[in-house]
Amino acid sequence: MRLKFLMAGSALSLVLLAQSMQPAEAGRRRFLGQNGAGTSYSQEGQYGRRAGVRAGLFGQGGVSAQGGQYAGPNGGTVNRGGLNAFKRGQGGLHASGSQGTTPAGGAWRRGGATGYSPENGAFHKSGIEATGANGGTFNRGSDMQYQQGVGGHTQKGFNAQAASGASATGYKTNNYDAGTGTGTATRGRDFNTASGDSYGYDKSTAYTKGQGFTSTVDTQNKQDYTVEWQKGSKPVYTPVPTQ
User: Fold this and answer.
1) Which end of the chain is more exposed for a tag (fewer CB within 10 A), N or C?
2) pTM above 0.90, yes or no
3) Which residues pair with 62 in a beta bridge?
């Protein structure tokens, strides 16, 4: 699963702000006016530098942005940036991103955004990509959205590959209709060992909020089964006959 930096790209670009600061510019500036206030800052130390700005209108909203660049004593590096904005009665947004390397030679990058508005509801998107010093990889992504009275959806997934050849993948989805109180959800895992063995499962569920659900589970190398539950009753487990 490839990481999309559409929401966090502006946050990562704030790293340039920190990189452009010179030692002579290090410090803090403040502004206070009739309608609002603002602050900017920059700092540089032994292992890196950071800079940011904050501004707000009294009783209306505000925005802040920050970025930084760091290098550890053993060779690791980190670049990061973030953005926060909100307006009274209309919602807000948080976005952030970072990337870096480890002293051993690994690398990673991540990005994400979370927002809310009374009209459109809430959302969250995030992802991460990483590579190990020994050649392993890991990717993970998440996409969620929900609106009061309407419903929402969730989609998550990950993929991991070890240098030895072992691997793992997984996913999770959920779609909910608030009008009817019903939804469907799926979940799955797949694991493969370096020696060639594999195991995992795929699970599908249909549910009515607060009333019950029916799940079907397909497994690798094990007995498939279904689970039914209705409010006020015990869950019923039923093995699926092997064909």
Assistant:
1) C
2) no
3) 56, 86
